[in-house]
């Protein structure tokens, strides 16, 4: 705990220091200021819990300091120590939150009693503040997650409502008298890319923002409640139980709130009116179907219902019909041929009057399976890790490219498909070149034999090449000479081994190909900037 002594007379501050048993009161830091202005700077920087101040001081007196404290440090407790028995000063002290007014010369018992009372008051208020902080944390983190899970469970199993009916009535104003409901769904699957890009580093914040906007509208008059669907990575569910016939119009109002706040609108799917809670699942499924079966090539509305079904999409169009053309284009290594193959597929897609999210999802799964088949075919004998590495830049689920009007952008989708196939073709060519290039074989040999006494002469003899040729080509390919490349491998392995406290540094040196511990340490410091022992201490502390 900190205390600040404010008095323009140093001998008074020294006397107060001597009169109080600071340790007994739990005071470990004593700050001093000669006037109110200096005091405000210290208070802003150190936030002392207790402030003892004189009233008559130059620059800023105690009267002004008390006023400043009430506005800027209201949690601090203030004891006034003054040489003036003036009722107006006493009244000012009480008005602005002072806990005591002590006259000079200071009585030690009176000062200690005043300090004890101020500390008790601060501790009591701090306990209350801490309780409030903990409650706020619980409200802001645990409770929303609780409602997400509970309401998501009700979507899957409406019978669970009975066990939570009282809580729902008390917290969400969903009373037992509610007999009907509707479910609406907001899905991030087809949200405008500009918004998702803005929140790409923190999708949880995007969910939080969208749910907050929805609930600002829904909870104002107890119309419903929005929550994150526990069993979906992209859905926000809106459970509606008031003015159900007007739900579509109300969703338009929410969407206008989205536009104002996030500068983008979203698509809602909404189910029909059903009995609550018995048919809650039916309304949810209708809302989901309305979103997944809407026509992405048109934008007549942002609110989608199965009451207005769209035309059925073209069922016979399949990615597999174009697999051979794409396969040949990849093998050619020509970006032009790849673009042509993808264009042929897209020309067929453009002829469809209707494209739904459900159909896009099906095509994406086809495309993903086809790419995996290509990788396994092109990189024969590749491990599963290698396959994952080649496909690592691909999203786990379909990304729906929309233009600024929320309509499916086939040109963007074509670019994405082309980029993906060109990426595989490029990796295939690199792999073929690597297989033929003896320099990569040498690099692989170094990776496996770094712990041995490997010399350039040994490698030249093993691969039947001159030392000069190996040195020149190796430097061209890897931009470092062979010995430095070997050193980097050894240092990389050494750093892993140094994390094991049971290995001596001499053992680590021998395990990575150095018989001389001192030489190993010298090389390690040259490359890493610190000694092996310093690295071990740093890595272990981290």
Beta-strand residue fraction: 5-15%
Number of helices: 22
Largest sheet: 6 strands, mixed
Coarse shape: flat
CATH architecture of the largest domain: 2-Layer Sandwich
The SS-based structural class is alpha/beta
Ranges with pLDDT <50 over ≥5 residues? none
The end-to-end span amounts to 31 Å
Number of strands: 11
CATH topology of the largest domain: Alpha-Beta Plaits
- Portion in helices: 55-70%
**What is the C-level CATH assignment of the largest domain?**
Alpha Beta
Modified residues (4-aspartylphosphate): 54
Domain HTH araC/xylS-type: 440-538
Protein name: Response regulator
Pfam families: GGDEF_2, HTH_18, Response_reg
Notable features of this structure?
single chain; 542 residues; alpha/beta; Alpha-Beta Plaits; 4 domains; 6-stranded mixed sheet; 5-stranded parallel sheet; 22 helices; Sig_transdc_resp-reg_receiver; Response regulator; transcription regulation; phosphoprotein
What does this structure look like?
InterPro entries: CdaR_GGDEF, CheY-like_superfamily, Homeodomain-like_sf, HTH_AraC, HTH_AraC-typ_CS, Sig_transdc_resp-reg_receiver, Tscrpt_reg_AraC-type_HTH. Pfam families: GGDEF_2 (PF17853), HTH_18 (PF12833), Response_reg (PF00072). The modification 4-aspartylphosphate is found at residue 54. This is Response regulator. Residues 2-119 form the Response regulatory domain. There is one protein chain. 58% of the residues lie in helices and 10% in strands. Strands 6, 7, 8, 9, 10 and 11 form a six-stranded mixed β-sheet that branches. The mean pLDDT is 86. It starts with a strand and ends with a helix. It has 542 residues and is an alpha/beta fold. It folds into four domains: 2-128, Response regulator (Rossmann fold); 157-305, 2-Layer Sandwich (Alpha-Beta Plaits), CATH 3.30.70; 319-434, no CATH class; 438-541, Arc Repressor Mutant, subunit A, CATH 1.10.10.60. The chain is flat. It has 22 helices and eleven strands.
């Amino acid at each position: 705990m900190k205390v600040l002594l404010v008095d323009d007379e140093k001998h008074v501050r020294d006397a107060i220091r001597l009169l109080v048993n600071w340790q007994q009161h739990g005071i470990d830091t004593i700050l001093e200021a000669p006037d109110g202005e200096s005091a405000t700077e210290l208070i802003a920087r150190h936030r002392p819990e207790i402030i003892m101040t004189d009233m008559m001081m130059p620059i800023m007196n105690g009267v002004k300091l008390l006023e400043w404290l009430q506005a800027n440090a209201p949690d601090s407790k203030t004891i006034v120590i003054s040489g003036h028995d003036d009722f107006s000063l006493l009244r000012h002290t009480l008005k602005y939150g002072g806990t005591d007014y002590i006259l000079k010369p200071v009585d030690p018992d009176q000062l200690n009693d005043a300090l004890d009372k101020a500390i008790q008051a601060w501790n009591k208020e701090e306990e209350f503040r801490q309780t409030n902080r903990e409650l706020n944390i619980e409200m802001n983190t645990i409770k929303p997650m609780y409602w997400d899970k509970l309401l998501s469970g009700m979507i899957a199993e409406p019978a669970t409502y009975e066990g939570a009916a009282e809580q729902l009535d008390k917290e969400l104003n969903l009373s037992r008298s509610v007999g009907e409901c509707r479910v609406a769904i907001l899905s991030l699957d087809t949200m405008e890319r500009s918004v998702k890009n803005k929140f790409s580093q923190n999708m949880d914040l995007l969910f939080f923002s969208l749910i907050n906007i929805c609930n600002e509208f829904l909870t104002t008059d107890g119309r419903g409640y929005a929550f994150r669907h526990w069993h979906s990575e992209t859905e926000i569910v809106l459970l509606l139980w008031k003015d159900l016939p007007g739900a579509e119009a109300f969703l338009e109002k929410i969407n206008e709130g989205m536009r104002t706040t996030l500068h983008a609108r979203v698509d809602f799917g909404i189910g029909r009116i059903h009995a609550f809670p018995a048919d809650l699942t039916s309304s949810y499924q209708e809302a989901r179907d309305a979103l997944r079966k809407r026509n992405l090539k048109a934008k007549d509305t942002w609110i989608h219902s199965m009451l207005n079904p769209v035309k059925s999409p073209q069922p016979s169009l399949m990615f597999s019909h174009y697999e051979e053309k794409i396969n040949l284009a990849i093998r050619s290594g020509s970006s032009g041929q790849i673009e042509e193959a993808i264009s042929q597929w897209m020309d067929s897609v453009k002829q469809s009057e209707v494209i739904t999210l459900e159909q896009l999802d099906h095509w994406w799964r086809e495309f993903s399976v086809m790419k995996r088949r290509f990788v396994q075919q092109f990189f024969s004998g590749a491990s599963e890790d290698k396959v994952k590495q080649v496909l690592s830049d691909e999203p786990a689920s379909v990304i729906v490219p929309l233009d600024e009007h929320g309509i499916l952008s086939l040109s963007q989708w074509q670019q994405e498909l082309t980029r993906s196939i060109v990426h595989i073709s490029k990796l295939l060519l690199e792999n073929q070149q690597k297989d033929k290039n003896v320099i990569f074989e040498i690099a692989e040999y170094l990776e496996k034999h770094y712990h041995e006494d490997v010399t350039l002469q040994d490698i030249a003899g093993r691969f039947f090449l001159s030392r000069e040729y190996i040195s020149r080509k190796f430097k061209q390919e890897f931009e470092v000479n062979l010995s430095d490349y070997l050193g980097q491998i050894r240092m990389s392995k050494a750093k892993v081994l140094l994390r094991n406290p049971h290995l001596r540094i001499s053992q680590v040196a021998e395990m990575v190909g150095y018989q001389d511990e001192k030489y190993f340490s010298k090389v390690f410091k040259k490359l890493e900037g610190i000694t092996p022992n310093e690295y071990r201490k740093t890595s272990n502390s981290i």
